[in-house]
Specification:
Blueprint: H1 14-26, H2 43-58, H3 61-83, E1 89-90, E2 93-94, H4 95-126, H5 130-133, H6 139-166, H7 178-202, H8 206-222, H9 235-242, H10 245-258, H11 267-294
Antiparallel strand pairs: 1-2
Helix pairs in contact: 2-6, 3-4, 3-6, 4-6, 4-7, 4-8, 4-10, 6-7, 7-10, 7-11, 10-11
Length: about 300
């Protein structure tokens, strides 16, 4: 009887067989495709992004920290010479002491905006934004790392400006309410960091970003009571000033040094302003998060 011929079994290439065996061995150890591997907060990624952003502005600290400190200090010199003659006093202190806190926090806010507005915009223009979008970072972590770095730069600039002003004749930087200095300084830096991040998402070139800085940020900061009391304005302009969130940052920060401000001379009035500013920042942060989540002008 002739032997029965068995059908030949297709030969499996050695590479395919090894691949199958490896996958079989790995089954159960790796999550399914599309299932997130990192759960919760990606602390390593968030810290890496923060350090990257901080090192970026520290590499050119002469331009990013000391130069803004010098330019803000020159504001103090010019305005005190022009308006501080004959022992002029505002809120019971000499003009230099009155204007110094506003200039410090104004420098902090403007540099927080400059730092956060550069991150995404430079990546979009240079084609390196993929380095921010590809890592396993959520939108909130991306926003948190960029904002935290911008706040860090704001603190450095504020310290540089305060150091220079401390040696200027007639300036007294004694603290009356340290909590107000910390809170309003941080809230002002966070607010401008978020605005800078939003501007960098919208902008398509550096000219767009400069337009926001020159026509929105600079006027709002200079017309917020930095160099004057809003009580000296007409009622309609007082109302407009009180709708400007920059006004509460500068006046609240000044309250921390002088114990007096346009908001009010009592803790209750300033605390109400502090709470309102905190709520405004939460709403702004949510808006920026939603824009990042949508991928508008980033992924599209």
């Amino acid at each position: 009887m002739a032997d029965q011929v068995q059908p030949a079994t297709p030969a499996v290439p050695q590479g395919d067989a090894s691949f199958t065996e490896n996958n079989a061995g790995r089954k159960g150890r790796f999550p399914a495709r599309g299932e997130p591997v990192i759960t919760g907060i990606n602390r390593i990624g968030l810290w890496s992004l923060y350090i990257k952003e901080v090192r970026r502005f520290l590499k050119v600290q002469t331009q990013t920290i000391w130069a803004p400190g010098v330019s803000t200090f020159l504001f103090l010199v010019i305005f005190t010479v022009a308006m501080g003659r004959e022992g002029r006093e505002v809120l019971g202190v000499n003009f230099a002491t009155f204007v110094a806190p506003g200039l410090i926090v104004m420098g902090m806010m403007q540099n927080a905006f400059a730092n956060s507005s550069f991150s995404l915009l430079s990546g979009k223009i240079q084609g390196t934004i993929i380095d921010l979008l590809m890592p396993p970072l959520s939108e909130s972590e991306l926003m948190g790392g960029i904002v935290a770095a911008a706040v860090t730069r704001a603190i450095f600039v504020g310290g540089a400006v305060a150091l220079a002003m401390a040696f200027y004749p007639g300036v007294d930087l004694s603290l009356a309410h340290p909590w107000a200095v910390v809170w309003f300084g941080l809230m002002g830096a966070v607010m401008l960091s978020l605005l800078g991040l939003l501007a960098s998402i919208w902008a398509e070139k550096f000219d767009h970003n400069a337009a926001v800085s020159n026509f929105v940020i600079a006027p709002l900061s200079l017309l917020s009571g930095t160099f004057y009391l809003i009580d000296n304005l007409a009622p309609v302009f007082q109302t407009i000033s009180r709708l400007n969130p920059f006004f509460y940052v500068i006046s609240g920060f000044r309250f921390g040094f002088l114990g007096k401000s346009d908001i009010g001379d009592t803790n209750e009035a300033v605390v109400n302003g502090a709470i309102g500013l905190g709520i405004f920042n939460l709403l702004l942060a949510f808006a920026v998060y939603r824009v990042l989540k949508s991928g508008w002008k980033i992924r599209n």
